[in-house]
Amino acid sequence: MAVRRIRRRPARTRFVEAGRKKIHTVRTHGLFLLPNLFTTASLFCAFLSIVQAMDGNFGISAAMIFLSMIFDGMDGRVARLTHTQSEFGVQFDSIADMTAFGVAPALVMYKFTLFSLGSLGWAACFVYCLCAGIRLARFNCNVTVVDKRFFQGLPSPAAAALLAGFVWLAVENKLPVSVSGALPVLAMLITLYAGFTMVSNAPFFSGKSGVNLKSAPFVGIVAAGLLFVLFSSNMSLSLFILFCLYALSGYAYQGYLFFMDRPNPVLPSQAENEADESSQGVQPQEPARDKEDAPRE
User: What secondary structure letter does DSSP report for 171?
Assistant: First the structure.
């Protein structure tokens, strides 16, 4: 019986292949690390914002929240561009968002002026913090259900920008003189409005509808240039007005849908609910006959 010889590859070839595998592993782990570095930077800016607020540097504290928003917007895009999405990155981003856009703005607002209201001040900050947590948890649960063109409720970065913009505007003394006397009350109202709007069902545009910048009209380019000049001349006022308009846009669009008798795009339809219940083997509930029989929230 003939003995079959097994040809072994030279040691040099095996060494080169092992080196290539090692380089591939390092590159892969490096790509997965890249989006998480942006998330870490966002979390660091939130931590620095809290530290600066404790030291009384509220202008720097508000700017750090805006910088945290920039890093938070970049981590997801970097992950999609490099095809390095992971479940760990999703969970890490949610935890960082809770700190950056839930805890940090509430503490900054409290240290800035809400502490003068006593229990009302810290209660308003807690309500905002609680609503931010609920908003992020609901977003993670409904990420495959809600229309991607809209957010269900005010996004937590926009809510944080609303608070940070108000603090930045007040630090630079650009608020009207008539408002300066009621600054704590106005800050409490803004904090509560931002918190409750985060957990509302108002549809806010997400900007993910696939806008093609290559085919942008000439008027859009001119408008972008004017906005750039406006932001450069008075950045704090421009940012605050911009996020105020965005925080009101969801309710305005919801009112438009109501008068036009159109469904809310962020709420699943009744047909989808019945299909889900039938697929799970659950009998769909009968609709309420009148207002008294309707379930309460």
Answer: H
